[in-house]
Amino acid sequence: MWFLDRVLRRVERQSNERAGDAFSTQLGFRAVLAQISDFHLRDGDEAPDHALANAVEAVMAVRPAPDAVLAGGDLADTPTVAEYDRVKRLLAPLPIPVYVLAGNHDDPRMLEDAFGQPQSYSADVGDMRLVVCETWLEGTDAGALGPERLAWLESELAADGRLPTILALHHPPVHIGLTAIDGIGLPREDGLALAELLPRFPQVRRVVCGHVHRASYSVLAGVPVVTVPSTNIQAKLEFGVDEFDMVAETPGFAVHALVDGEVVSHIQPVERRA
Ligand SMILES: [Fe+2]
Fold this sequence. Notes:
Blueprint: H1 2-28, E1 32-36, H2 47-60, E2 68-71, H3 81-91, E3 98-100, H4 108-115, E4 121-125, E5 128-132, H5 146-159, E6 165-169, H6 179-182, H7 188-197, E7 204-209, E8 216-220, E9 223-227, E10 234-235, E11 246-247, E12 252-259, E13 262-269
Parallel strand pairs: 1-2, 2-3, 5-6, 6-7, 7-9
Antiparallel strand pairs: 1-12, 4-5, 8-9, 10-11, 12-13
Helix pairs in contact: 2-3, 3-4
């Protein structure tokens, strides 16, 4: 009997060591990027502020702690300098870098003044790379890449292919089936141009977007395209309808993690509180 006990203990120890190896391998390549989006802070309404505070708290509860946060556009609604001050104050508890991206409701100059980041840029997030490319267009809720931004993106991706890369755009480059929201997306030629570009840069593992106030998953030229819920209100799921309704469905955010060398995206719900 004692012999069987010893054998069982040795098998248990060996399997624990193997599990530990697998875990430490993951930790060796670990990188976690949280993506929060579409806060729409506005004067005279405190609900989006409370919702953003809840989302920030939920991001800080993620274990292991994220390496950085992407604030993916429509941070302010009107927008005003006071709204960006409130955004900054609500994001201040995050003890990690916060990368911002302008949405159609934002003012890119005010955003740049508030956060000191350019409108398109790249940053390393642990062992991943984040490339932020602006799609903001003056005077419209739709967005655009266009030849200049596409040329910037091409040179940025060509300059550094070391790490699995997440490309962040506010407007998704694909239709998600909600006709009214698709109508204020990127022009079809931008989606096609991006579809031609991406296969040349296999380091791009994910395109991540906001704007549509829903979690959705699609594919462009073999690259998964993920959209994230708003921290506040969501777009109702209604295909082929010419107007969209906003509904009080569960808010959420995304967590993009590098696991065994590949990007895995989770959508994490955020509990609504009074
Ligand atoms: Fe938007």
